[in-house]
């Protein structure tokens, strides 16, 4: 039971203070004049002023409330390193017993798990959330069991009591890690790009400096080993060999005694892009569709075009010397012998043998294609003539033979069943609305893939691989009708764009391909094949274990599956002879960027709260009670602040000075003062 005196004035306090001032002035005047009853009159005035103040006697029935201690236990990935789980479990048991022995104490246990999105250890956020659910007047302290490597130390934390860190780990821990300090997201194919790497030793390393072995693997190939200095930034030049995503894995062998090997590996994913597409366009003669090819290629700013057009055939007999048939001397020898390898694509548009390009030049073009180049032939009537380029060294690479027959009839190009699965022509919707073409060269014995058919379902577009290169044959010179919008036109631009990219060996247009799209720890596995069926894909995890996943068909020639990776790292995929690699998770997980236990990160948070950092390897500290504002940690002990909170069960009030008693007392003192002054 608690007794309290309160005041409930009958008039405003300014009135009471004014009356008090007037009374004091009157008493001083009476004292100055020597009135004998001034003391009794003063008592009468004091009683009246007290009555106006309305004193109230209040009695409270209170129930004391227990103190609340919040214990935040860090269970993130870095807390699972060597020895730390045992330290944490032992500290939890001892701390639970110590807090249970403390009278009037409740404990709120808070678990801090790994954050989503590689956000690291969000210790202060977990504590702030726990504080929001508790009355601040009862919180006696906060204790954190952690390695101190938190990633939200900059978050404001308003605590009414001290906070302490019980530090896991050992003073002699050391670790080696690989840091990728600079890695571009994109790089130009065939041009060197520099990556900046650093090998660092942290903690009580056995020796400073020295050298370490670094293994580098590109795209899942066998790693190459290099020896590099420790603690020094070094630049690693690399050249990407293909477009699309290139996965590069860097790894350090685990050293005896180091804390973990999880930060010894780094994955870098760089997208390879082409700087410029160098195209050589050879037009055999002017025709209605000739400028269509030129305009199409020149419309793309990424294309460097060299256009070689025969405007006047050399067999024309008008007495003009051959060396004067062009405005400038065209460098045919330089283009077709010396610099042919500089081109990404060579297009022959209605070209026929006229003696301008000797057979040795065309033979060099065939060798160029066999060695990895790309050749596209847009055939006109001359392809079926005696001067056809098929009757040249190019016949070794062309995917079909002309029958010498030119079909002059209207037909609508159609995508074949195989073409519906091939990435060059799959998804070209609206074939029923395409405009018709009016001429086609009949082909025999096509090799490779027939993706489009024309009149009488004869081959119209044929693709084939020759040696290391690729060749395409379009058996019509009327594709330009689509660009002119004849009978509604058609997807000429998209078709030719895909065709050029397929010939450039862009990964997204490979007809036999296996790849994965990663998002965090999940990946979407995609398989494209013309085989008609895809078997299960074998996934090899970073630890060497394998999983087989069944693929489901999503479109003609396309299958996919989804997989949740058990850990971050490099995953290898294999199906039907196709292989791929994918990196899941961050290149360097935040939890393993810094692994040595330290109290320095939380020091700016603990110091204003008078808390402390104590290592668990030195023993479990004892608990003490400390007053608010006093140091709350010392050697071997941590302090909690008793809050003395309570709950009011009932309240009763009554007047301390009843009105009748105040009036009686005031009257008594007034009469007594009057009588005293009267006797005098």
UniProtKB/TrEMBL annotation:
Keywords: Membrane, Transmembrane, Transmembrane helix
Origin superkingdom: Bacteria
Keyword Signal applies: no
Membrane listed as a keyword: yes
Listed transmembrane segments: 12-31, 38-56, 657-675
Residues spanning the signal sequence: none
Alphabetical list of InterPro entries matching this protein: Class_I_gatase-like (IPR029062)
Annotated protein name in UniProt: Membrane protein
Provenance organism: Leisingera methylohalidivorans DSM 14336
Lineage: Bacteria, Pseudomonadati, Pseudomonadota, Alphaproteobacteria, Rhodobacterales
């Amino acid at each position: 039971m608690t007794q309290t005196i309160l005041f409930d004035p009958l008039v405003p306090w300014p009135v009471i203070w004014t009356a008090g001032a007037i009374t004091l002035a009157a008493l001083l005047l009476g004292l100055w004049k020597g009135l004998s009853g001034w003391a009794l009159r003063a008592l009468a005035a004091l009683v009246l002023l007290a009555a106006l103040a309305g004193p109230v006697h209040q009695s409270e029935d209170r129930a004391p409330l227990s103190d609340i201690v919040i214990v935040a236990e860090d269970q993130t990935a870095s807390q699972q390193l060597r020895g730390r789980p045992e330290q944490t479990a032992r500290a939890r048991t001892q701390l639970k017993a110590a807090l249970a022995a403390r009278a009037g104490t409740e404990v709120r246990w808070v678990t801090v798990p790994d954050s989503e999105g590689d956000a690291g250890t969000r210790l202060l956020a977990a504590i702030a959330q726990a504080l929001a659910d508790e009355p601040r007047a009862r919180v006696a302290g906060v204790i954190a069991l952690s390695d101190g490597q938190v990633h939200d130390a900059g978050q404001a934390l308003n605590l009414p009591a001290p906070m302490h860190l019980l530090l896991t780990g050992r003073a002699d821990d050391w670790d080696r890690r690989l840091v990728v300090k600079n890695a571009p997201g994109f790089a130009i194919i065939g041009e060197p790009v520099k990556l900046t790497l650093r090998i660092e030793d942290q903690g009580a390393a056995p020796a400073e400096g020295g050298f370490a072995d670094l293994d580098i693997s590109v795209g899942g190939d066998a790693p190459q080993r290099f020896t590099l200095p420790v603690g020094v930034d070094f630049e690693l030049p690399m050249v990407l060999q293909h477009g699309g995503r290139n996965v590069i894995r860097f790894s350090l062998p685990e050293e005896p005694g180091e804390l973990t090997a999880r930060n010894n590996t780094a994955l870098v994913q760089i997208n390879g892009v082409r700087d410029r597409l160098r195209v050589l366009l050879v037009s055999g003669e002017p025709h209605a569709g000739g400028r269509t090819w030129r305009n199409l290629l020149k419309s793309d700013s990424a294309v460097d075009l060299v256009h070689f057009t025969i405007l006047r055939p050399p067999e024309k007999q008008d007495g003009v010397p051959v060396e004067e048939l062009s405005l400038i001397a065209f460098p045919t020898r330089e283009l077709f012998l010396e610099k042919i390898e500089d081109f990404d694509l060579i297009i022959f548009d209605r070209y026929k043998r006229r003696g301008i390009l000797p057979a040795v030049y065309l033979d060099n073009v065939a060798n160029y294609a066999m060695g990895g180049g790309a050749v596209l032939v847009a055939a006109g009537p001359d392809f079926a003539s005696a001067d056809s380029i098929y009757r040249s060294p190019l016949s070794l690479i062309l995917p079909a033979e002309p029958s010498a027959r030119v079909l002059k009839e209207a037909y609508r190009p159609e995508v074949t069943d195989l073409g519906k699965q091939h990435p060059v022509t799959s998804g070209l919707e609206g074939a029923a609305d395409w405009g018709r073409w009016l001429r086609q060269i009949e082909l025999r014995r096509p090799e490779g893939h027939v993706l489009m058919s024309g009149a009488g379902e004869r081959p119209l577009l044929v693709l084939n691989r020759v040696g290391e290169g690729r060749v395409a044959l379009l058996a019509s010179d009327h594709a330009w009708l689509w660009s002119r919008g004849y009978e509604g036109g058609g997807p000429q631009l998209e078709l030719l764009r895909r065709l050029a990219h397929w010939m450039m060996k862009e990964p997204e247009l490979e007809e036999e391909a296996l790849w994965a799209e990663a998002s965090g720890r999940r990946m979407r596995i995609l398989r494209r094949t013309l085989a008609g069926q895809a078997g299960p894909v074998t996934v090899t995890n970073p630890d060497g274990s394998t999983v087989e996943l069944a693929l489901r068909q999503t479109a003609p020639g396309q299958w996919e599956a989804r997989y949740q990776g058990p850990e971050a790292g490099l995953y290898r995929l294999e199906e039907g002879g196709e292989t791929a690699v994918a990196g899941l998770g961050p290149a360097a997980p935040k939890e393993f960027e810094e692994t040595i236990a330290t109290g320095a990160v939380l020091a700016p948070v603990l110091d204003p709260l008078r808390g402390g950092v104590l290592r668990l390897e030195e023993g479990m500290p004892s608990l003490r009670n400390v007053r608010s504002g006093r140091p709350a940690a010392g050697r071997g002990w941590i302090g909690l602040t008793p809050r003395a909170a309570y709950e009011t069960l009932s309240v009763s009030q009554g007047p301390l000075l009843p009105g009748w008693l105040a009036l009686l007392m005031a009257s008594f003192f007034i009469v007594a003062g009057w009588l005293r002054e009267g006797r005098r």
